[in-house]
Design a protein that fits this description.
Chain A is mainly α. Chain A has 6 helices and no strands. The chains are: A mainly alpha, B mainly alpha.
């Protein structure tokens, strides 16, 4: 139960962060990616604020032997730069650049119940499942 | 394409929102020992079972709860899409497939990964940022 409440509260903080910063609005995100008309640099301040808090705190948290409610830290350790990483990130960037949506913002934006937002989510889920099902042959 | 909605530059609300996102990443790591990467959490909520699924569902429910609280008590927030349904479907497929193939998105690689100076996350973030900037400029100014 502690795990569920901690996770729910983390999600709540994340959601508020996205909404307060305006990242839940794809128009704002696209206005960051497009430097040439109505440039809106807000996204840089969101990333900057998040990293300014997370970088020192993650360093401090990882000095603990284990997390509060789990037996060990579960953090990716791979340092291999492979084609999957670059190709996947490029695909994601193209989709993000078309729509202005990445996975976090579109979750909070879902509550707008706009049909195009919901269509994006259905397609995103299909894309995620497709990669999951293809994994044994591509890995 | 033409007629893009302008949005005001709001560095202070950006910074405050960013700090909340950073605190969320730290809280999930401190309590569960997990990285708050939303693409991984969303995919895991669909494909994992048992406790591995439950904490991810709880995180997503927390995000939705934030949106509902904001709508009911704090006056709501804007969601202004800029391209048509066909583009949104193509974009959704690319975001879903790409974030899983590349093991992360703006949160897992962009915030948590950069914060711990992961070489994979630095490469991923530079790649998706560059791809997004090029794509947005093509969609807006070439097509």
């Amino acid at each position: 139960m502690k795990v569920i409440i901690a996770s729910l509260f983390s999600g709540l903080l994340f959601g508020f962060g996205l909404i307060i910063s305006g990242m839940s609005n794809p128009a704002r995100v696209l206005n960051f990616l497009d430097f040439s008309s109505n440039w809106d640099a807000t996204l840089a301040f969101v990333m900057g604020g998040a990293i300014a808090v997370a970088a020192p705190c993650i360093y401090w948290v990882r000095k603990r032997s284990k997390p509060l409610f789990a037996d060990k830290f579960d953090i990716p350790t791979s340092t291999t730069i492979d084609a999957k990483l670059v190709l996947g990130s490029a695909c994601f960037g193209i989709g993000w650049g078309v729509s202005g949506f990445c996975p976090g913002p579109v979750v909070v934006a879902a509550t707008s119940l706009q049909s195009d937002v919901l269509l994006f989510i259905v397609a995103m889920v299909v894309g995620m499942l497709a990669q999951h099902w293809l994994k044994p042959t591509t890995a | 394409m033409e007629n893009w909605i302008a949005t005001p530059f709001e560095p202070l609300s950006g910074l405050i929102g960013g700090i909340l996102i950073g605190l969320s990443v730290v809280l999930l790591l401190l309590t569960l020992g997990r990285i708050a990467g939303i693409s991984g959490i969303a995919a895991g909520a669909l494909t994992q079972r048992g406790s591995e699924q439950y904490w991810r569902l709880a995180f997503l429910i927390g995000m939705l709860l934030a949106a509902v609280i904001y709508k009911v008590f704090l006056g709501g927030f804007e969601v202004q899409t800029q391209v048509g349904s066909g583009w949104m479907i193509i974009a959704g497929l690319l975001v879903g497939f790409g974030t899983r193939l590349g093991s992360g998105c703006t949160s897992g690689h962009g915030v948590a990964g950069l914060s711990r100076l992961s070489p994979r996350s630095i490469v991923a973030t530079l790649t998706f940022m560059a791809a997004a900037v090029v794509t947005t400029n093509i969609v807006r100014h070439v097509l």
